[in-house]
């Protein structure tokens, strides 16, 4: 498989039509993550209420893979229990690094990123949004 094969029509479509959530005025948690390999970066804002993510914002500068992950997260994260999000992050990590299955249900579109497992240098940018949200959640929970 050639590197250009990673950028399927569906990946490019999701990245091109991503929601642009902007930033939150008063987040409970924030985090900035940068991929040392490719320079992709994301800043995320999180608001929590009773263990559920009720607000989300981000600003991203990333390749199509990072944009696709972030677009799928931005589409589905609000209303997601923290434990469910952490499980999706674990599933994504296992999908890329341990031949695990992609997440299902509302997170089903993450399956389009499955071919990234064969390209280790692209794992970091694909997981960037998950790592940033996890850090922001830790910060938000520390304030609770």
Q: How are the SSEs placed, and which strands pair?
A:
Layout (H helix, E strand, L loop, with lengths): L8 H8 L12 E6 L6 E9 L2 E10 L2 H13 L5 H16 L25 H21 L1
Antiparallel strand pairs: 1-2, 2-3
Helix pairs in contact: 1-2, 2-4, 3-4
- What is the oligomeric state here? single chain
Low-confidence spans: none
Q: Tell me the fraction of residues in β-strands, as a range.
A: 15-25%
As for the CATH topology, it is Sufe protein. Chain: A
Helix run count: 4
CATH architecture field: Alpha-Beta Complex
Q: Which structural class is indicated by helix and strand composition?
A: alpha+beta
The string of secondary-structure elements, in order, is: HEEEHHH
Strand order of the largest sheet: 1-2-3
Q: What is the helical fraction, as a range of percent?
A: 40-55%
Commentary on this structure:
This protein is of the alpha+beta class and 144 residues long. It has one domain: Sufe protein. Chain: A (Alpha-Beta Complex). It contains four helices and three strands. β2 and β3 (52-61) form a beta hairpin. The radius of gyration is 14 Å and the shape is globular.
Which key terms come to mind for this protein?
3-stranded antiparallel β-sheet, 4 helices, 40% helix, Sufe protein. Chain: A, globular, alpha+beta
Give a short summary of the structure.
The chain is of the alpha+beta class and 144 residues long. The protein contains four helices and three strands; from the N terminus they run H-E-E-E-H-H-H. It is 40% helix and 17% strand.
């Amino acid at each position: 498989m050639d590197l250009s094969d990673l950028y399927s029509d569906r990946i490019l479509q999701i990245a091109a039509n991503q929601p642009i959530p902007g930033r939150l005025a008063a987040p409970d948690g924030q985090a900035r993550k940068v991929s040392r390999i490719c320079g992709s970066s994301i800043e995320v804002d999180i608001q929590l209420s009773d263990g559920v993510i009720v607000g989300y914002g981000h600003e991203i500068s990333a390749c199509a893979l990072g944009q696709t992950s972030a677009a799928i997260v931005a589409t589905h994260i609000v209303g997601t229990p923290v434990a469910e999000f952490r499980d999706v992050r674990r599933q994504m990590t296992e999908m890329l690094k341990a031949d695990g299955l992609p997440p299902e249900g509302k997170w089903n579109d993450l399956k389009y990123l499955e071919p990234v497992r064969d390209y280790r240098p692209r794992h970091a940018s694909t997981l960037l949004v998950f790592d940033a949200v996890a850090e922001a959640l830790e910060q938000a929970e520390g304030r609770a």
